[in-house]
Design goal:
Layout (H helix, E strand, L loop, with lengths): L3 H32 L30 H22 L6 H20 L5 H9 L5 H25 L25 H24 L8 H20 L5 H11 L3 H26 L9 H8 L41 H6 L14 H7 L1
Helix pairs in contact: 2-3, 2-5, 3-7, 4-5, 4-6, 4-9, 5-8, 6-7, 6-9, 8-9
Length: 365
């Protein structure tokens, strides 16, 4: 007869060992990651550098590496903090608060994700090929979600702020708060200010030689300058995620939200168009560069030809952008049959020669 007390002791020991295992498993996993740091690991590229036979290859992720996930998470968390700090700064010092916060956050995230923290910056760098479209799309999603999550945290942290509170909630941008302007003027103000911000990012961080460790500080100063001048007219958003986050959470100023967004995206587009003649396409090319150059008959410099391959042939590199004729495919040899194998001449058999025993030879030595 089984001892019930012994059974209870065995069950208790099993439960305690399981609890210890479940408790220590996250700790051991964390220590393992610490022993193999994400940013120091030599992982494969997470996006396609060349487009071999696939026009949409820049839209595809080659490998969901830890570096890619860390970069996306950095954009999400950076945008969340930016929304909390910048969206709740007092109006009298909003330019200072937003500029300093952006500079600090770019310093924090630059080594992980490049410190975009702005869909307009990501959109521009995708157009010029300095960011792949696959990674850029993930960045934009993370940035918009970060703006939404930051607004939700603002509703938790501030007593009088609540979800769906309308136009009086903090972080909402409007062109009717200070000096009232028209929608067209709102569009132009956001376009110009975003152009200044994105151009600064290119000058200090994206293109070479750059300006080293003062790059994030210059980006923060560019936001400060724009907010100091244009804040009285538009609130100086300069960031689609900063506009959409509060608009979605607090339901505020939907009538002008997309004017902000389109003005900021066009500002990034204008900066990209001006940067291209100065620095050219980045390492990822662009979805547009091959087709535009091909339609205009523009020859690609030899040092950039590795990026351009024919969309219909996986193995044919493009010297120039003129289509090259296909080489004829050689016919396949017929499959061998039993009769053909029997008729094939065979070498004459060789006389058998005894092979030395390696163990015995070793013993004799």
């Amino acid at each position: 007869m089984a001892d019930p007390a012994g059974g209870e002791d065995e069950h208790t020991r099993f439960m305690s060992s399981s609890a210890i295992e479940w408790t220590t498993k996250p700790v051991t996993g964390f220590l393992q990651v610490c022993n193999e740091p994400i940013l120091c690991s030599e992982e494969d590229e997470d996006v396609q550098l060349e487009r071999r036979g696939d026009l949409l290859a820049p839209l595809k992720v080659n490998k969901w590496s830890r570096k890619l996930w860390a970069a996306v998470l950095a954009e999400f968390l950076g945008m969340t903090i930016f929304e909390i700090y910048g969206g709740n700064a007092p109006n009298s010092v909003a330019a200072y608060g937003n500029g300093i916060t952006l500079g600090i956050l770019v310093y924090i995230t630059a080594n992980v994700s490049g410190g975009h923290l702005n869909p307009a910056v990501t959109f521009a760098t995708c157009l010029t090929g300095h960011t792949s479209w696959a990674k850029g799309g993930l960045y934009v999603i993370a940035q918009v979600l970060g703006g939404i999550f930051g607004s939700l945290l603002g509703a938790v942290l501030i007593p009088w702020v609540h979800v769906g509170g309308g136009n009086s909630m903090p972080g909402c941008f409007t062109h009717e708060g200070g000096v009232t302007i028209t929608m067209g003027q709102l569009f132009l103000w956001e376009l110009i200010m975003t152009f200044v911000l994105v151009s600064t990012v290119y000058a200090v961080a994206v293109t070479k030689p750059g300006h080293g460790n003062i790059g994030p500080l210059a980006v923060g100063f560019s936001l400060f300058a724009s907010a100091f001048i244009g804040g009285q007219f538009t609130g100086a958003a300069l960031n689609p995620a900063r506009v959409l986050g509060p608009a979605i959470v607090f339901h505020c100023y939907w009538n002008s939200a997309f004017v902000y967004v389109f003005g900021e995206l066009f500002g990034g587009l204008l900066a990209a168009v001006i940067v291209l003649p100065l620095y050219g396409f980045g390492q990822f090319g662009s979805l547009l560069d091959t087709r535009i150059c091909g339609s205009l008959g523009i020859k690609i410099p030899e040092k950039h030809q590795h990026r351009f391959v024919l969309a219909r042939d996986n193995d044919m590199e493009m010297g120039s952008l003129q289509e090259q004729p296909h080489s004829p495919v050689p016919p396949r040899p017929p499959k061998p049959t039993l009769a053909s194998l029997a008729d094939r001449p065979h070498p004459p058999p060789q006389a058998y020669r005894a092979q030395p025993d390696p163990w015995r030879v070793g013993a004799q030595i």
